[in-house]
Amino acid sequence: MEFFVIFMSALLVNNFVLSYFLGICPFVGVSNRLDSAFSMGMAVTFVMSLAAVVSWAIYNLVLVKYGLEFLEIVSFILVIASLVQLVEMFIRRMSPVLYQTLGIYLPLITTNCAILGVALLAVLKQYTFAETVVFSVGAGLGFTLAIVVMAGIREELDAADVPAPFRGAGITFITAGILALTFMGFSGLVR
Amino acid sequence: MGSVVAAIMTMGAIGLFFSVIISVAYQKLKVEVDPRVEEILDVLPGANCGACGYPGCANYADAIVKGAPVNRCSVGGMEVAEAIARIMGVSAESMVRKVARVRCRGDRERAVWISEYVGIQSCAAAHLAAGGGKLCNYGCLGFGDCERACPFGAIRVNERGVAEVDENVCIGCGLCVQTCPRGIITLEPVDKRVLVFCVSQDSGKVAKKACKVACIGCGLCAKKSPDAIVVENNCARVVDADKVTDESIEKCPTGAIVRLGSRN
């Protein structure tokens, strides 16, 4: 039950994009097509889960042991940057098309604050290893959910008759705002 | 002091750990890049102007290896096309060089001015504000947006207040074409020596009132050279420059059709 609460909390109630407003850059940047949005979500989920787990291990097994907790941010960033490098090489090798589609947003996962946020929050909340896994996967899927919903709406918006001043970034931000409002509806789900 | 040493040691160890993993992964996951891409990239001018239709030189190099035509680079011209063709082992098809032409000759004396624009000194701003000072909506505004857009210094606003292209310098990248808020600049083959230097789509009466050298769409030229000139939307257009007779150029009541001097 505990795991379920942590998972749902990270997925819906405290959705990293729509409730914490972390990781907005890829959320807006890669959400114009459904399939690339989904791949981006998967890439972020992968990096997020791995980063949180490795960060957890480094924090609890190394930093705490030597009383070096103040190094958490530096070492976490190191972890994230290395993982993104790995993912980038992997995607480039496995799917050049996806590599082209994600473009600059792939290396930008490095600076995606949602990922550092998950790693830091997991440590801050003193989660156990298993809880960290559940939390980070939930957060990653939450990001995927948000970006996929957004991409679905934006694909429909392409066909809509948007008033000229709102076209492009304007209507995108308004959509994101309304989406965030609707996610407020989940707030009673977990205390 | 002890914690500083410990911190350095720890970060060093973590860093080393990840660098080993990444370098191993790099060896395993290395992507084989066609060596020709690098060679072609060296030959291309590196201006990244986008005239070839690809976002930059690197993308074009990629596309060539996948089978795109080798002669798209108008910056490099024949020379580069031939060099790429050698790398790719194909023959470079002849490429017609295109240059930008400013399709307006309505300078200070010829065009009618109805107001004085004193706002931000750029064509885009003037065009947005009230269409600048000229009565003609198809006239060159003369604030030099194109001059600033041109990376090669090939276009400039002349002393008569109308933009002018130096065809010997212009490489036909099309940046000025995109920049001009009025769409007056077009890319034309450099050997097309007869052009209608007006793009006004106003009716003859309005166009005549606005500028002495406007094309009024009367069609006299098209009557004299039916295969070479067509009139569309109140404006004549040269289809085949070689077939335009001198008679039809002389017939133009406003002198909007011009035969350019032969190229040196």
TrEMBL record, chain A:
Q: Does the keyword Cell membrane apply?
A: yes
> Which GO terms are recorded in the biological process aspect for this UniProt protein?
electron transport chain
User: Cellular component GO terms, alphabetically?
Assistant: endomembrane system; plasma membrane
Q: List where the protein spans the membrane.
A: 6-30, 37-58, 70-91, 103-127, 133-153, 165-186
Signal peptide region: none
Query: Could you tell me the EC number(s) of this protein?
Result: 7.-.-.-
Provide the top EC class: translocase
Protein keywords? Cell membrane, Electron transport, Membrane, Translocase, Transmembrane, Transmembrane helix, Transport
The protein's location, in the record's own words, is: Cell membrane; Endomembrane system
Mode of membrane association: Multi-pass membrane protein
Would you say which domain of life the source belongs to?
Bacteria
Which Pfam families does this one have? Rnf-Nqr (PF02508)
Q: Which family does it belong to?
A: Belongs to the NqrDE/RnfAE family.
Q: What does this protein do?
A: Part of a membrane-bound complex that couples electron transfer with translocation of ions across the membrane.
Oligomer and partners: The complex is composed of six subunits: RnfA, RnfB, RnfC, RnfD, RnfE and RnfG.
In Swiss-Prot or TrEMBL terms, this protein is called Ion-translocating oxidoreductase complex subunit A
Q: Which organism is it from?
A: Thermodesulforhabdus norvegica
User: What would be the name of the gene that encodes this protein?
Assistant: rsxA
